[in-house]
């Protein structure tokens, strides 16, 4: 289908993704129709197919984009001590996700709505991120600094704890983000340190 004269794909495409993200987070993937997304953007429902073949692809692209941005943004300095690497990870993870509550919500709540093939692709990206934390924890365990029975379980537990900040933290609340990060770092540190 030819794009209409004067259309602005560089403007409308991002608006489609932003609207879908917001609506999926507010109402759930299953409850949001392509017509609702089109209405939010201010285009005809048929026009959405210029930007995405279907709703499944739209969800998949949102989840992949989130994970790709996460992977690109985090760098691990292996020259640092494991405890310092872990502290940097905690700080990064909470700050990165605090700015993206809708992305975090759909990344966890809407995985079940992906096709098996798309689910596998997103899970592979998630494993890449988990592997980075697991490498930090394994490094600390190997050095005798961390007391961890199973680094895979510890990895999943730490990520779940840190990601949980998004379920309750609000800017302007009782604690600042810096205070929250300091307390979460203290909890993570105590959960993995030996002695």
The figure for the number of domains is 2
Residue share in β-strands: under 5%
The CATH class designation of the largest domain is: Mainly Alpha
Q: Largest sheet, described in full?
A: none
Shape: elongated
SSE pattern, N- to C-terminal = HHHHHHHH
Give the proportion of residues in helices: 55-70%
Name the quaternary structure: single chain
Poorly predicted regions: 1-7
Structural class: mainly alpha
The beta-strand count equals 0
N- to C-terminal separation?
66 Å
List key phrases describing it:
Tetracycline Repressor, domain 2; Arc Repressor Mutant, subunit A; 2 domains; about 0% strand; mainly alpha; disordered N terminus; single chain; about 200 residues; 8 helices
């Amino acid at each position: 289908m030819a794009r209409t004269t004067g259309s602005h794909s560089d403007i409308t495409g991002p608006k489609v993704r932003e609207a879908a993200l917001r609506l999926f987070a507010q109402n759930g993937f299953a409850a949001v129709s392509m017509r609702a997304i089109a209405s939010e953007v201010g285009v005809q429902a048929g026009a959405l197919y210029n930007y995405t073949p279907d709703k499944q692809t739209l969800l998949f692209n949102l989840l992949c984009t989130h994970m790709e941005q996460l992977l690109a943004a985090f760098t691990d300095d292996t020259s640092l001590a494991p405890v310092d690497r872990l502290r940097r990870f905690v700080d990064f993870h909470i700050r990165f996700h605090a700015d993206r509550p809708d992305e975090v919500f759909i990344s966890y709540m809407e995985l079940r709505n992906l096709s098996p093939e798309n689910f596998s692709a997103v899970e592979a990206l998630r494993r890449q991120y988990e592997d980075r934390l697991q490498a930090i924890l394994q490094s600390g365990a190997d050095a005798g600094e961390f007391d961890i029975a199973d680094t895979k379980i510890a990895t999943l537990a730490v990520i779940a704890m840190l990601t949980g900040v998004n379920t309750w933290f609000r800017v302007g609340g009782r604690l600042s983000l810096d205070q929250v990060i300091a307390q979460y770092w203290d909890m993570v540190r105590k959960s993995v340190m030996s002695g």
